[in-house]
TrEMBL record:
Alphabetical list of CDD domains matching this protein: LuxR_C_like (cd06170)
Keyword Transcription: yes
Keywords: DNA-binding, Transcription, Transcription regulation
Gene3D superfamilies the UniProt entry points to: Winged helix-like DNA-binding domain superfamily/Winged helix DNA-binding domain
Taxon lineage: Bacteria, Bacillati, Actinomycetota, Actinomycetes, Micromonosporales
Pfam families linked: AAA_16 (PF13191), GerE (PF00196)
Identification of the protein by name: LuxR family transcriptional regulator
Organism: Paractinoplanes durhamensis
Length: 873
């Protein structure tokens, strides 16, 4: 690294120390012209450097910055597996339009960087990083936090006065301040030794220690101090250019001219600009040989000095250049248009649809707002403002949605939607939100089909949160003549016990129709799928869209999708993953002030804590939930608090408390209309009633589930109804059928509970051998879930069956060679992942083998494997 830079010894030493260290990231902060770019250039030295420069013109185009970064690395992509390579396709306009999640893309970029740095360490330099689009910033900050252990360093330069995603990334920073007076004088003397004392003093006073000003002001006339920095430094030189060269530079500025930036996509190319090179406005990048702006402020000065007509003409040319790129074309043709124009408004709508489908909801809002401005008719303007307000609300931009609402007018559907979103998500005021949306639906004005569907779907969602029968009746009253999807949401989100039969098939068909769809479509259908227990079939799509929209996309939908991911993980027994998802969701909701969703995540976390035996934490979660939700009438959350109480009571053996909570959700023998959780606690209520000697109530509740035909709603309700009937049957005939139910394996905790109940019944019937087999499997299931109190209960029941008839050797002889090898490795303390690595098996396959090994050896935990295997040798 060179040190021939005046007054920057401290900063250069800090950069040198950073680059000598292990892989990592450093954000260089400072005012415009303070010398960040010079320091980044000096940091490169003899290293292999990959450069990218943010451009204001592309700051709203999703993944434009990442395109710059990735393109030079594509030759290394051949070393990646096909699935990882395919992750990059949407960034380069290949394959699906759906952008991958930040997680998937970030990991893929890390893999690509690791390959590129395999033979020689790599320095990734991003200048003007504050102008990168939000999606690119999200990926860059993701990888920046994970460079430890890689031979890759990342330097990002940002302006102090411009807010960007780099500010909240938690990365180490190097602040570059203006030069101290002695250094400023030294630099000016080296640049312009011939200056008279008066001119030197004036320049020093004007520059205020800014190195770029000290370098450029001697070459420019000194205008008034009120002019902007870019005009002070470069305005005169731009004005002196010939019109064709000035026009060419303006087009390059609007198209984001950077070194290597034209690679991989159509971009405006500069030609015949020797005049601009001579004036010092352009330079040649030594690494790529490309002609580039000497400094980012040249770009700013070009935009400031151009007349409106010149800018419009430049945008028209660029629109023609990018006519095959929906988003770039729309952006440029709109900037070139002054008067209302329906074709341009339609182009913006099309570009907005493309942007939102790729995770760029904020870009879509800007395009739709501009489309409204260019609409020739009042109806078109209103419809596009409604669309912009809707997308803004889905992107968690409620303040921006509110501004659009004000523009649209206080009586507009946009006003109703935005006010209802704010009341629901931020305040949990379901009553006010419900009244406002119902009033909009019943208003005198005619509503187009899309707006009516959005209002109706929101009213159904509010009713779902309220768990209030009267609100549901109002919402159902607006469903006459509704579209197919709204009717599906009515049946799946509402009184699913009475109207949900066949909804699972309708959900599957709808998912088939929408494909990847818009995020709000996937979100709504995902909620419907959860309530009819069909979410597992669509988990890959739900998880991918949740991750994609989490950063800069439809964030409101991402919060709900993360809830669905968490609930699916709870159902599937992936409890550690569920808690991690809950933490991610909680951070997102707190960041955006979505208090309703924040409390939902607390509640779902409390449910896992209750089943795992952290009863104190579970009760805290339930109490927090109830204190916030009950005064507001958020019935879904008060029911969730009750469900946590049920779970905590059953886990701790406080069956009276469990019964009190469960019977509060719904009276035994009935299922409260419009209460989703009264269905989900079906088996819980029956179990609590049996344990407290209320057999009549238990039998009535199980029979009510059967007579209401709950088994026809979903496989899970069929499984739970079968188990509840078995629990209340003295003959115990249904236990085997429940445990063998096709849906049982999808819900391992419920299955283990049924096995525990079955084993207890078998022991009371003195069928000890059968009881041991069932209880051993139940204990192993509980242990895998981390449900410690339940595993202990199963172990106690297992112990009560007496010694096993056979020995460990008998069970060991039944092991296959592979099962024996896996068992020995597990007994040695290896994890499933470590065993899989040794035997070239997936961790899931290893777990499946151990699932069969435990009952053969008569053990229920890994800790017992060593003794069991030793006894068989």
């Amino acid at each position: 690294m060179t040190t021939e830079i005046v007054g920057r010894d401290t900063e250069l030493a800090a950069l040198e120390a950073f680059l000598r260290g292990p892989g990592g990231a450093l954000v260089v902060r400072g005012d415009a012209g303070v010398g960040k770019s010079v320091l980044l250039d000096a940091a490169g030295g003899e290293r292999r450097v990959l450069r990218a420069i943010g451009a204001e013109a592309e700051s709203e185009l999703a993944y434009a910055g990442l395109h710059q970064i990735l393109y030079p690395l594509l030759p290394y992509a051949a070393g990646l597996d096909p699935a990882t390579r395919a992750t990059f396709d949407p960034i380069f306009g290949r394959g699906s339009d759906e952008a991958p999640s930040v997680l998937a893309l970030g990991v893929a970029v890390l893999d690509l960087l690791a390959l590129a740095a395999g033979t020689e360490p790599l320095l990734l330099v991003i200048d003007d990083a504050h102008w990168l689009d939000p999606q690119s910033v999200a990926v860059c900050t993701f990888i920046a936090r994970r460079l430890a252990g890689h031979a890759v360093h990342l330097l990002a330069a940002v302006r102090s006065e411009i807010v960007s995603g780099w500010d909240t990334a938690g990365l180490p920073s190097l602040v570059v301040a203006p030069l101290a007076a002695p250094a400023a004088e030294q630099l000016l003397a080296a640049i312009a030794p011939e200056l008279a004392d008066t001119a030197r003093d004036e320049i020093l006073r004007e520059a205020q220690g800014n190195p770029l000003a000290l370098v450029e002001l001697p070459r420019a006339a000194l205008p008034s101090a009120s002019s902007t920095p870019d005009n002070r430094l470069f305005g005169a030189r731009i004005a002196a250019l010939s019109p064709p060269v000035r026009a060419a530079l303006l087009r390059a500025a609007l198209d984001g001219l950077v070194a290597g930036g034209g690679a991989g996509r159509v971009r405006y190319r500069l030609a015949d600009v020797g005049e601009a090179l001579d004036s010092g406005l352009l330079t040649v990048d030594p690494a790529s040989g490309d002609v580039v702006f000497r400094h980012p402020l040249v770009r700013s000065a070009l935009l400031r000095t151009a007349s409106p007509n010149e800018r419009h003409a430049a945008h028209r040319d660029l629109a023609e250049l990018h006519e095959q790129d929906a988003e770039r074309y729309a952006t440029h043709i709109a900037a070139a248009t002054v008067d209302p124009d329906e074709e341009v408004a339609e182009a913006l709508e099309y570009g907005a649809h493309s942007a939102s489908g790729r995770g760029g909801a904020a870009s879509a809002v800007a395009m739709l707002t501009r489309a409204a401005e260019l609409s020739p008719t009042a109806a078109g303007r209103s419809q596009r403002l409604e669309e912009a307000a809707f997308v803004a609300a889905q992107a968690a931009l409620l303040d921006e949605a509110h501004e659009l609402r004000v523009t649209a007018g206080p009586q507009s559907p946009a006003a109703a939607l935005t006010a209802a979103y704010a009341a629901l998500y931020r305040e949990g005021d379901v009553r006010a939100a419900h009244r406002r949306v119902a009033a909009a639906l019943s208003g005198a004005g005619a509503l187009d089909a899309d707006t009516r569907a959005r209002l109706l779907n929101l009213l159904l969602a509010i009713s779902m949160f309220a768990h209030d029968e009267a609100m549901w009746r109002v919402a159902e009253g607006f469903c006459a003549g509704a579209d197919e999807m709204s009717l599906l949401y009515r049946d799946a989100w509402g009184d699913v016990a009475r109207h949900g039969h066949g909804a699972g098939d309708r959900v599957r068909a709808a998912f088939g129709r929408i494909g990847d769809g818009q995020p709000w479509d996937v979100m709504r259908l995902g909620v419907a799928a959860f309530f009819v227990d069909a979410l597992a079939e669509h988990r890959d799509l739900v998880r991918s869209v949740a991750a994609r929209e989490e950063h800069g996309g439809a964030v409101t939908n991402a919060m709900t999708l993360l809830q669905l991911v968490m609930l699916d993980q709870i159902s599937a027994g992936e409890w550690d993953d569920a808690l991690a998802t809950g933490r991610r969701g909680l951070e997102l909701t707190v960041e955006h002030g979505y208090t309703l969703f924040e409390h939902q995540f607390y509640g779902f976390t409390g449910l896992v804590q209750a089943w795992r035996g952290d009863v104190e934490a579970a009760h805290r979660a339930a109490d927090r939930l109830d204190r916030w939700a009950r005064p507001r009438g958020v019935g879904y959350l008060t029911d969730l608090a009750e469900a946590i109480g049920v779970a905590a009571g059953l886990t701790s053996g406080d069956y009276e408390a469990a019964y009190a909570y469960a019977s509060g959700l719904t009276a035994p023998g009935t299922f409260r209309p419009y209460s989703q959780l009264s269905l989900r606690t079906l088996f819980d209520l029956v179990e609590a009633a049996v344990h407290t000697g209320r057999l009549d109530q238990a039998q009535a509740h199980a029979a009510a589930a059967r007579d209401l035909h709950l088994p026809g709603v979903s496989g899970r309700l069929d499984f739970l109804t079968t188990a509840a009937l078995a629990l209340t049957d003295h003959a115990g005939a249904g236990f085997a059928a429940a445990a063998a139910h096709p849906a049982a394996l999808q819900f391992p905790f419920d299955r283990a509970r049924v096995q525990l109940a079955h084993g207890m019944w078998l022991r009371r019937q003195r069928e000890r051998s059968a009881a041991r087999a069932v209880l051993t499997e139940a204990a192993a299931g509980f242990e895998r879930l981390g449900a410690v109190p339940w595993a202990a209960r199963a172990q106690a029941e297992l112990k009560a069956t007496g010694p096993a008839a056979g020995s460990a050797a008998d069970g060991a002889s039944a092991l296959t060679p592979q099962e024996r090898e896996i068992a020995e490795l597990a007994a040695g303390g290896l994890s499933n992942k470590e065993i899989g690595a040794k035997l070239f098996l997936s961790p899931r396959t290893v777990g499946a083998h151990l699932y069969r090994v435990f009952p053969k050896l008569g053990v229920s935990s890994r800790a017992s494997l060593r003794d069991a295997l030793a006894g068989s040798s």
